[in-house]
Structure formats: C-alpha cells, structure tokens
Specification:
The chain is built from 13 helices and nine strands. By secondary structure, it is α/β, with parallel strands linked by helices. Strand 4, helix 2 and strand 5 form a beta-alpha-beta unit. Helix 5 packs antiparallel against helix 6, helix 10 packs across helix 11 and helix 11 packs antiparallel against helix 12. The two termini are about 35 Å apart.
Length: about 350
C-alpha cells in the first residue's frame, strides 16, 4: 500500500532570524528537499515565510516543526496557529538528541532546520496549542519568581563572601544588603500577584487548596506545575507527563556493557525545580515518601536517584488528584490507583 504524501518544514529559531527547510516524502517514501531559506524573526518575516511555504504546499497536513528556543519561537507559533497551520514544538533537548542520532558532524542553523524536518517526517508528533491566557500569566509570574529567588541566593552568597573577607568595606555590605532586601520585596510582590490571579477563579483556587493537603506540597508548587502544563492540558497520560518533566529514566545498556541509568532531563526544567524542595520535605514528614526513599536508598547507588523517584511520585499524585477531583488520602495506595485507572487529562 502506498504511503500518504507528507510535507514538513523544519524551523530553527534564533532571536533575530529563523532558518527553514521544507521536506517532502512522496507516496512511495522518497524524501525530497523542496527549499531552504532564512527569514527575519518578526511579523514581516512570518508573512514572507507563510507565502514561501504556501507555494510548495501540496498536502493538506503540512506540519511546521519548531524547536523551543527560549521564548524566541513563541511569536511565530502564535502567528501560524492564528492562520490555522499545523505546528509542533519540540523541546531543545529532545531535538538535540534526535539530531545527534543522525550522526551529523556539521552544526549550522541550516543543518539543524533540515534535521528538524527529518524529525517531523520520521515521527508522529503532537500538535501545539497555545496556553490559555490565565495560565500564561501564571507561568510568566511563576518563572519570574524563580529567577528573583535565584538572584536572592546569589546576592546572599556575595554578602557572606564580602563579610568573610579581610577588612570589608561597610558601605559595600550595606548596599548589598539593601539590594537583597529589594529582591525579597520583589519576590513577595510577585507571589502576591500569583495568589491574586488564582483567587479570581474560585474553582481553580478550590482545586489547588485540595491538592496542598499532600505533605511537602505548598500552593506555589501546585501553581507552578499547572502553569507549566496549562493545567495538565499539555499531557495526555502519566507517562507523557513524566517525560514532559524530564523525570523519565534513560537506560544506558549495550551488549555486554551495563551503563548507568539516569533521568533524561529532556523535559521542562521548571517542573523539576518546583518539585525538588517538596520532595526533600516529603521524605522527612510524609511516612510513605520516607519509606519509599529508604527502600530505594538500599539498592540505588546515589541518594539523588531515590529523591528523583519521590519527585516523580509527587507529580503523579498531583496529576491524579487534579483530574479525578478526589480528596487526598495519605493512607491510600496511589500507586495501585495509577495501575487500575490512569486519569485522562482534562
């Protein structure tokens, strides 16, 4: 039986421009490059690109495959979506590993665009949809909060180093302490803005309040997870959620060689950061998490691997509660529930 005609445009983004490669797979399976070009990363460039791609478009299902590059890809994605185009956005790590599998030694924007097009032809990829306005605001604010808190840690370390130095300048220390005070005030303001957004939606606020019954989980943690997944609408199952977070385990075995297992880290780093401290708290105060952590420590070489397992467990429980609408029961075997009935993303 003949294959269906398939057309894909690989798009490599940067802040000022984007490179594209248009590839076509014929009914017989042969792959042809229909064109390569660079466009400016602005509205004029988007319109020129859509016109250029439209001249080569034959299949109704042309897919534009974009690598997530910071925020530089977002304007193009929203533009294409509003034009009813099919877009798929791939995490940078995922694209990197695919390109590496092709054994391509040359690395240029043009080569990366061609490799992304190859990725689109060889795999069935989920189409992108924009995050809802409320959750985009929450995502931007929660990411800003993370950045501010990171700066507080850096500034506090600098103050400690300055105070520990020989004969430190008191004025310098005073200025640095004033700076960290301003940063803490900004963090408080940012967190207050997040809470106000949540409180505007009574149903959302009630669901968040129900989930924070989990030991180690606070309101900000839940909000961060919801903001990064568009209230879990970006994932279809527990497996895809774990993969999206980069908490899936990668095996490194080949023939007689037994390599080390590790998490992929191909997913959303903000989710992993949001779960780290809650997992640390859970292994101290939640009996089930503490028992899981202890069991794994007996057979795993590193404690960090056991902690990651607790992070993964917390993520799954939050996802399950969000979709099921149930109250958290600390005595219930949520692992058993996951086997019996995996929730469907709402």
């Amino acid at each position: 039986m003949k294959n269906q005609l398939k057309q894909v445009c690989g798009i490599d983004m940067s802040s000022q421009k984007f490179d594209v490669c248009f590839k076509e797979q014929s009914e017989l399976g042969g792959i042809t490059i229909k064109g390569s070009k660079s466009f400016k990363n602005n509205l004029t460039g988007f319109e020129q690109y859509l016109l250029w791609a439209g001249k080569r478009k034959k299949a109704t299902g042309l897919i534009h495959i974009v690598e997530a590059t910071g925020v530089y890809h977002e304007n193009l994605c929203y533009f294409l979506y509003e034009k009813s185009e099919n877009i798929t956005v791939q995490l940078a790590q995922k694209a990197k590993y695919f390109i590496k599998s092709l054994n391509i030694k040359t690395k240029t924007d043009k080569v990366d665009a061609a490799a992304l097009a190859e990725m689109g032809l060889s795999r069935t990829l989920e189409l992108w949809k924009p995050i809802s306005k409320n959750f985009k605001d929450l995502r931007d604010l929660s990411r800003t909060l993370v950045r501010i808190k990171n700066q507080i840690v850096i500034t506090s370390s600098q103050i400690h180093a300055l105070e520990s130095s020989h004969d430190p300048n008191k004025e310098s220390i005073s200025m640095m302490k004033e700076l960290v005070g301003m940063q803490r005030k900004l963090a408080d303001d940012c967190q207050e803005s997040i809470y106000k957004l949540i409180e505007q939606d009574k149903e959302l606020n009630e669901k968040v309040e129900r989930i924070i019954a989990i030991k180690g989980i606070n309101k900000i943690t839940v909000i961060k997870l919801l903001a990064e997944t568009d209230a879990f609408r970006n994932v279809k199952s527990i497996r895809s959620l774990v993969s999206y977070a980069g908490l899936d385990v990668v095996q490194n075995d080949s023939g007689m060689q037994k390599g080390k297992s590790r998490i992929s880290k191909k997913g959303n780093s903000y989710i992993r950061t949001a779960l780290y401290m809650p997992a640390m708290s859970a292994i101290r105060y939640d009996p089930k998490s503490k028992a899981l952590y202890g069991r794994l420590n007996e057979r795993l070489p590193k404690k960090k691997q056991s902690l990651i397992a607790v992070m993964r467990k917390l993520l799954i429980i939050i996802y399950t509660l969000w979709n099921s609408g149930e109250e958290y029961d600390p005595t219930y075997d949520w692992t058993k529930k996951r086997r019996d009935r995996s929730p469907v993303a709402g």
